[in-house]
Amino acid sequence: MGHVIIVGAGPAGVATAFLLAQRGIQVSLLEQETRFDRVFRGEGLMPSGVAALEEMGLADCLAGIPQRQLDAWDFCIEQKRRMRVVEPQGAPGQIPTHLIHQSALLKAIVERSQTFPSFQFYPGWQVQSLVSQGDRLQGVTARCGNETRDFTGDLVIAADGRYSRLRKLAGLALNQAATQFDVLWFKLPAPAELLCETVFTVCLQRQRQFAFYPSWDGRLQIGWIVAKGQAKTMGDRDWAEEFAQASPKSLASYFRQQRHQLEGPIFLDVIVGQAPKWFTEGLLLIGDAAHPMAPNRAQGINMALRDAIVVCNQLMALGRSSVWPRDRLQDALQAIQTSRQPEITAAQHLQLEEWQKIAFFTASPLIYRPFVTLATLLGRLGLVEQAWLWQQRGLRQGITSVTLEG
Ligand SMILES: Cc1cc2nc3c(=O)[nH]c(=O)nc-3n(C[C@H](O)[C@H](O)[C@H](O)COP(=O)(O)OP(=O)(O)OC[C@H]3O[C@@H](n4cnc5c(N)ncnc54)[C@H](O)[C@@H]3O)c2cc1C
After folding, report:
1. Is the distance from the beta carbon of residue 47 to the nearest atom of ligand 1 less than 6 Å?
2. What is the per-residue pLDDT across 5-63, written as a single tens digit (0 to 9) for each?
3. Residue at 54 is within a domain
4. Which residue in 263, 244, 264, 271 sits closest to 255, CA to CA?
5. Cβ–Cβ contacts within 10 Å for residue 69, how many?
6. pLDDT value, residue 23
7. Are residues 336 and 192 in the same domain?
8. Ligand 1 proximity of 52 Cβ (cutoff 6 Å)
9. Is the CB of 304 inside a 6 Å radius of any atom of ligand 1?
10. Is residue 279 pLDDT above 70, yes or no?
11. Whose CA is nearest to atom 3 of ligand 1?
């Protein structure tokens, strides 16, 4: 069986490493960090991501980590809740959205992978360059402290995230989407009443758009959306007051009282796009390296997990020979891109469309005022909740069929 070098132990890298090592493929997983904890890791896991973990046999890893399951989505405009959408819970086949401790999940999957003899994990190893012979990529050169070494194999899988160094080293392009925004991230201890149920609350005013939820650690996670490049011009702000101005009145006083406990902002640079070509001779991009995802509607983790399933299917179809025939390996890489691209394109379109709608409705008072009136009226109709869930179904359940074969 082949030897695969996987670069990056985010959701795409660890899930792919687990599936391949479980099937006897030699896997070296390189990660530049020595710890899984980072300043920020996405926490929203959509039902299709939960289903992907279950299919991989990792349901117990998910069950064993700190998490909360979402009860509802609240939409507040001008400090008033206009609509509540209850998460489908308990009905057969209905999985609620989860809010997870992503670092704990990654650690649990790596620990599970370490039970396979064909798996090797290299924390603290940062890939510096590619190793090639002629036009054939053979591996990567990585550094850990003062030590530098080559890791060679049949295939390099670049799962090194949205800034992917490997994508650049391989000369693969990234087409970025035109509509872009960034996120400012904050944390605050959650008030007791917000811990009784788990609600993802979206607050909207013309100049203020943010969302918050009680996280697995009992704190409120708050994400404030800014247009690309705008963060630098915002200056110092009384952020607690900004939140208070657009929150439901019961929460506004909490934000003001607790302003000294507010942590942040952390600036999170959002990139959305797709590499027109996900592979070269001996190298494959997956996850954000191939298609950086926006944060809204939590698509990045589940797209990464679903990439891993398709990679596993295609590589296992190459059969159990000690060397993968070069032309068949290239065909498999093409098949991976062909299989994944429609879902990624559609999901990114839906994510950006949501942002474009908000930008449109809040751009001018002439549009914004009728929008508030309409949203208030529609929010009173129960049907709108179901319509919202229906419209979101692709982002919740996946857009194409992705199933682990064998
Ligand atoms: C503000 C924001 C919020 C988000 N929130 C969510 C959310 O709630 N839910 C969701 O599903 N998605 C969310 N996303 C998207 C999600 O974070 C990504 O889509 C997802 O993490 C992609 O996984 P990945 O494995 O491809 O890459 P990453 O998670 O970025 O992992 C890449 C790994 O590669 C390592 N690495 C990088 N370079 C090297 C190198 N040279 N050598 C060795 N290792 C290297 C990095 O250290 C990292 O561990 C959010 C994104 C943003 C920007």
Report:
1. no
2. 999 999 999 999 999 999 999 999 999 999 998 878 999 999 999 999 999 999 999 99
3. no
4. 244
5. 15
6. 95
7. no
8. no
9. yes
10. yes
11. 295
